[in-house]
Predict the structure of Glutamate or tyrosine decarboxylase.
Amino acid sequence: MTDVLAELRALRAGDLPTHGGHTLAYVYDSGLAGLDELAASAHALASSANALDPTAFPSLLRLENDLVATAADLLGGGVGSVTSGGTESCLLAVLAARGDAPEPNMVLPSTAHAAFHKAAHLFGVRPVVVPVDPVTFRADPAAMAAAIDDSTVLVVASAPSYAHGVLDPVAEIAAAAAARGVRMHVDACIGGWVLPYFRRLGVPVPEFGFAVEGVTSVSVDLHKYAYCPKGVSVLLHRDADLRRGHYFASARWPGYTMLNTTLQSTRSGGPLAAAWAVVRQIGDEGYLRLAERTLAAVRRIREGVAAVDGLRVLGEPDSTLLALAADSEEFDLFTVADEMRERGWYVQPQFAHESSPLNLHLTVTAANHGTENEILTALAESVAAARAAGPVRVDPDVAAFIAALDPGTLTGEQFAGLLSAAGLGGSGALPARMAEVNALLAAAPPALRERLLLEFLGTLYRPGKSFT
Ligand SMILES: *Cc1c(COP(=O)(O)O)cnc(C)c1O
């Protein structure tokens, strides 16, 4: 047994660190000692239990009702379901709203999370994408109101948006939706467990939950700012009638009548129990203190970035997320990301989209309090190194070639050729530095970029494939 764990530990050593605040996307670190051990023990106690049947495992029913109640306390009430993550919560919000509408559409600000495009794809709901304000990156309520029509089943706003960390004007959008009798989902996946505490700390955070009339559902991820292990989110609905559309029953086979609240059927008690234990252990006061540390960290980093020559913060972020853009063409943010990586920090490149230029995303958590100056030093050094290296140049002929490719007409072989040319060939390791690859991807129109990256994903998930 110990050999197996040693092997696993060795594999994990090749990953980005999940603690210490050096990975500024994907992971959330409270910095609290002992929390992982508690969560692991709780997970082990319940991972063999199956939430498929809450009458057979009443402990899981209790854990779920407790978690939903805590989320509802933070977000103004409602009933809910525990899901596997933010994407599943958003999917279910769309599914519940769709009902049997013949040609349903949903009105999304262009900054809405890609989970809504996934919902559109899965459930046949046409996304009506409304551009956001080009400077603040907030949803434009008048334009969203104008986009609602008789086939609209859902209107979405973010609290905050992942890409820029800004709060959409929820109250105005909800009023427009309510005036048309349309449901309104607030995607608070990333903000729902931290912004209510910011408000208690005196930050002027507008209401975005059920206190706002017209809001019919809210999502909040516990594996983000509730600092729970991965695999837990909550979808709240204002009332139980609104929730029914994502419940599912089937008695049309000879086995048990399948009864599901979410997309999963067999559902492990592990993530649920781990989340329950973490939420109880940290507690309301604990979350307030974590929010205080996070707020101090994000303020300090934001202020410090303004002093880094060549970098600026996009928009006026309201939360824990920062998007850093370059002020100058003399260096490349993709190179800055590589240089940060060499210094032990992961920041996430976000490609240009509408008025949003190429930028670097930082998810700031409580563990970053105390490391702010290290991050800022690493950023300043990385920008200096990127300046010295000069911007990545994509050969204009190559850029023109890429821009003109139609992903619909390319064969698997042609994609394989493109991937090798981009340094993402099927065999061997990833390039240590990604700036050249990213610059090529940035030259590709979104549909081509999607397809190239899907083909790349297909090369990764092959038996025997490994980077270690
Ligand atoms: C993270 C996030 C999601 C998706 O959550 P996953 O847990 O990654 O599936 C949806 N919306 C927002 C705003 C998010 O930040």
